[in-house]
C-alpha cells in the first residue's frame, strides 16, 4: 500500500467521523435587542464565555441561535447574556446534525 493510499483512507475516516457528529442547537428568546449592534454584543458575550461552533442573533425575531458540540450550562449562558443588559426569556435545546455535502444532490 502506498503512502498516498494511506493518507486518502485516513482523510476519508476523519471526514466520515466529523460529518456524522451530532451537535446541539440552542435557541434562546432574548428581549431587549434593538439593532445589529445589540446582536453583536450578545454574540460576542456568548463566544467569549463558551466554546461554540456558531452563534447568530436576530433583533427582529428576538432570538439567538447557538450551535455547539454539547449542551451549554443554561444558567451560566443566561447570566452571561443578562450581564450585557439583555433578558433571556427562554431556552430550547434540540439535536443539530450538520447538513451533509453532496456534489450530486439537487433539490
What does this structure look like?
The chain is an alpha+beta fold and about 110 residues long. The chain is built from three helices and four strands; from the N terminus they run αβαββαβ. It has a four-stranded antiparallel beta sheet, with helices on one face. β2 and β3 form a beta hairpin. The protein is globular, with a radius of gyration of 18 Å. The N and C termini lie far apart (about 40 Å). About 5% of the residues have low confidence.
Helices, strands, pairings?
Elements: H1 3-19, E1 22-31, H2 36-49, E2 54-58, E3 63-68, H3 74-82, E4 87-97
Antiparallel strand pairs: 1-3, 1-4, 2-3
Question: Would you kindly provide a brief summary of this structure?
Answer:
This protein has helices spanning 3-19, 36-49, 74-82; strands spanning 22-31, 54-58, 63-68, 87-97.
Instruction: Give the biggest beta sheet.
Output: 4 strands, antiparallel
Low-confidence stretches: 14-19
> What is the C-alpha radius of gyration, as a whole number of Å?
18 Å
Number of continuous helical runs: 3
Head-to-tail CA distance between termini: 39 Å
What is the N-to-C order of secondary-structure elements (H for helix, E for strand)? HEHEEHE
Core attributes:
single chain; 107 residues; alpha+beta; 4-stranded antiparallel beta sheet; 4 strands; 30% strand
